[in-house]
Amino acid sequence: MTSDSYLTGGNRPFYLHFEFEHEGLDCAVHDLQRCLHDTKKSIAKAQLSRRLTQLRDLMTKHFHEEEEGCFDEICAQHPHMCPATRQMELSHKLLLSQLDGLARDLEVHSVTEDWKEEFDAFAVEMNKHKEEEQAFVRRGLDLPEE
Q1: Which has more pLDDT, 131 or 39?
Q2: Going by fewer Cβ within 10 Å, which terminus of the chain is more open, N or C?
Q3: Rounded mean pLDDT, 91-117
Q4: Crossing angle for the helix pair 113-140 and 11-37, nearest 10 degrees?
């Protein structure tokens, strides 16, 4: 990172913030999965709907920070990586769309086993995106592989 970057703390602290937010999203998704698959206790539809809205809000905030901060910095440091940041932004839109579809389905139907499977598929996609994005950001911020 150059000394004139708007990220005054350097790339490593910026990446750690990015990772901290990923952990928060992971926890939110996994906690929902635990609730959905707890055979001793069912989650009320209204509570599940509220938690999906909260998850969407967290995702939206995080994606905005990535797109308007992290990805901009990667493009500034490595202009050849700009097209790949656009692909990451597209992935963000697709994940939000997938979550919106789950929320719409929940409004119309009850929580079924099929719905739970769809949420689990969403969780897999979120994790896949996170892993791809982490590797991309480490390359873009010139950080070593973990």
Answers
A1: 131
A2: C
A3: 95
A4: 170
Q: How would you label 108-118 residue by residue, b for 16+ Cβ within 10 Å and e otherwise? A: eeebeeebeeb
Residue at 25: amino acid letter: L
Q: How is residue 134 written in tokens?
A: 């982490």
- Report the C-alpha dihedral over residues 21, 111, 97, 32, rounded to 10 degrees: 10
Report yes or no: 59 and 99 within 8 Å, Cβ to Cβ: yes
Phi, psi of 111 (to 5 degrees): -80, 105
With H, G, I as helix, E, B as strand and everything else as coil, classify residue 47: helix
Check pLDDT > 80 for residue 87.
Answer: yes
143: left (phi over 0), alpha (psi -120 to 50) or beta: beta
Instruction: Give the integer Cα–Cα distance in Å for 21 and 27.
Output: 10
| All structural domains of the chain with their residue ranges | 11-140
For residue 98, what are the contacts with CB-CB under 8 A and spacing of at least 6? Answer: 122, 125
Q: Are 134 and 22 in contact (CB under 8 A)?
A: yes
Contact (Cβ atoms closer than 8 angstroms) between residue 141 and residue 14? yes
